[in-house]
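Sequence design from tokenized structure. All designs in this work follow the same two-part layout: the structure record, then the generated sequence. An example of the structure record is given first.
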């Protein structure tokens, strides 16, 4: 039976961990460099190119957080362009990555966004109170669904 290494016994050196942290910081800066997050696809591709270096590392959670965020931003761009089916696929992928590292608050926001696009008011209502920082967005989504009976991301976001 193979033993799973303790988190303190991870193979990367402090300099490798710092290099990976710097990489994630550069991804975040690139993502934030435009207000519409239109660099998200490029960020996501860069993250994918280094996935093997992060998996099993001491900062793997941070990697999955970044992946989830970029997938979410791609989904938002698709939603803004009214490519709703594509947007839903990216939000679902974002949720899967989030489950590997993010807090419950981010999970709630991602889940709530998916419920919005699925026009599921009941499930959306159930996630709102877990979303803290993004609670207002989810509330706008719910109000939009109640008002129109269907999502309109441009109007509700």
């Amino acid at each position: 039976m193979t033993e799973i290494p303790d988190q303190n016994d991870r193979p990367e050196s402090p300099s490798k961990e710092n290099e990976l942290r710097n990489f994630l910081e550069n991804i975040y800066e690139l993502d934030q460099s435009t207000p519409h997050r239109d660099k998200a696809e490029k960020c996501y591709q860069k993250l994918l190119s280094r996935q093997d270096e992060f998996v099993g590392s001491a900062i793997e959670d941070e990697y999955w957080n970044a992946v989830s965020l970029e997938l979410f931003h791609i989904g938002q761009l698709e939603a803004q362009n009214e490519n709703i089916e594509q947007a839903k696929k990216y939000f679902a992928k974002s949720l899967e990555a989030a489950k590997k590292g993010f807090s419950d608050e981010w999970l709630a926001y991602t889940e709530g966004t998916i419920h919005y696009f699925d026009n599921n008011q009941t499930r959306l209502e159930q996630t709102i109170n877990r979303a803290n920082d993004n609670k207002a967005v989810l509330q706008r989504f719910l109000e939009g669904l109640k008002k129109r009976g269907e999502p309109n991301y441009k109007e509700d976001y």
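The two ends are 51 Å apart (CA to CA). We note this feature because it recurs in several other targets discussed in the main text.
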